Amino acid sequence: MNCREGCGACCIAPSISTPIPGMPEGKPAGERCLHLSVDNLCDLFGRPERPDVCGSFKADIEVCGSTREEAINLIGWWEQVTAA
Length: 84
Fold this sequence. Notes:
mainly alpha, UPF0153_domain, single chain, Puta_zinc/iron-chelating_dom, Zinc/iron-chelating domain-containing protein
């Protein structure tokens, strides 16, 4: 599965525990990454400062569903069930 351009769910729903430029403590679940554009595109895409966790994310139907809304709900659910 390829990412849906302009979705941005993976930049909103999950927490990111590693530092992000401008977000040294990472990002809490449900908070929009400050590098997500108004078009829901990553402003760090292809740049060396993009966190490894973001670059390693692979779209999958079980995580992303078939719509942006499903993706936000599914990723949020995965965030809750895998929280330590």
